Amino acid sequence: MHARDENxxxxxxxxxxxxxxxxxxxxxxxxxxxxxxxxxxxxNLYILSQHADEYDxxxxxxxxxxxxxxxxxxxEDNALEAKEVVSGYTKYIEEYLRLATIEEKMDAPMKEGVxxxxxxxxxxxxxxxxxxxxxxxxxxDGSSEAMSEDEKKKLKKKAEKFAKDLQDSEEKDIDAxxxxxxxxxxxxxxxxxxxxxxxxxxxxxDQLEENEVTDAIDSDGGLYVGKVTSLFDREATDKExxxxxxERKDDQYDSLLKKWKEDTKITLNEEVWQKIDFAYQGIAIxxxxxxxxxxxxxxxxxxxxxxxxxxxxxxxxxxxxDSED
Length: 325
Hints:
Distance between the termini: 46 Å
Radius of gyration: 28 Å
Structural class: alpha+beta
Number of helices: 14
C-alpha cells in the first residue's frame, strides 16, 4: 500500500519519495502519521489476541498450516534486500498472519448481543427530487469556470422563477419542468439531521409536506430547488435500520477494545521504532523490463508491511490488578 501511495503521488506531484513522506501532515510528517496508524493497529492486534480465549477464539491446525505456507511462499518469492526493507522474514510474517487471523475471528463474537431492534420512527427517511443550479459555466474542453457576479444574479432569478412556477403548478411535475429547462433531476432520501446535499436545503425540505416544493435555496456553489416526494420511504428507512445496527455493533466493539487498552500496560521500544522509515527506503512498485522480465524486488502488501514491527517493537502486558492492591 505504501509503495502504491509513494508511486502515485510522486508521479503526480513530481516530489521525491523523501519529500512525499516528510511533507507536513497535521502536527508532524506524513510518515509519522502513517506510522502512528500502524502502531495503533499493532497494539490492537496484540490486545485482541490476549482476550481471544474469552471468546473461545483459537487458530486451528489447518489455519497454522496455511499461515506457514504463505510465509514460506513469501520467503521464496522475494530477494533478501526486499525482505530486509519490510522485515519480511518468516517468523515475522507468521506472527502477523496469526494475529490477523485472531482479529478476524474476534470481530463477530465481540459484536454479539447488541439490540438489533430499530423502530420506524428512529430510522424514518423521507425522499425528495431536486435540481441544482450551479454557479459555473462549462467550457468547450469540458472543464468549468466560475460565473461572474452578473451571471450569478441572472441564474438566481432563473432558479427563483423555476421554484415559483413549480409551486404554483397543479401537478408540480419537477421532472417535466427540469426537462424543459435542460436541467438534471436528482433523487435523495433524507432526514432532519442530514447535511447533504446542502444543510439549509435539507432543513427547508424537512419542513414541507408531501408534494410541496422548496424555494430556491442559495449556497456557495449554486442554488437548490426540491420537491418532497414521500414523507416515509420504506426502502431507505430499512437501509437506515441496517446502518444503525452496524453502528451499534461497531460501537460495542470499539468500547471493548478501548476498555482493554485502558487496562493494559503498553511498552514501546522507541529506539527500534525510530529506525522504521519510509522516506529513504526507496520502496517502489517494480516495473517490467523491455524483455518482460520481472524485477526480483517485489512490493509486499499492507499486511506484510505491517509486519515491520513485531514483538521487538511493541509488547503489551496486562496489568495484574491484584498485585496493585
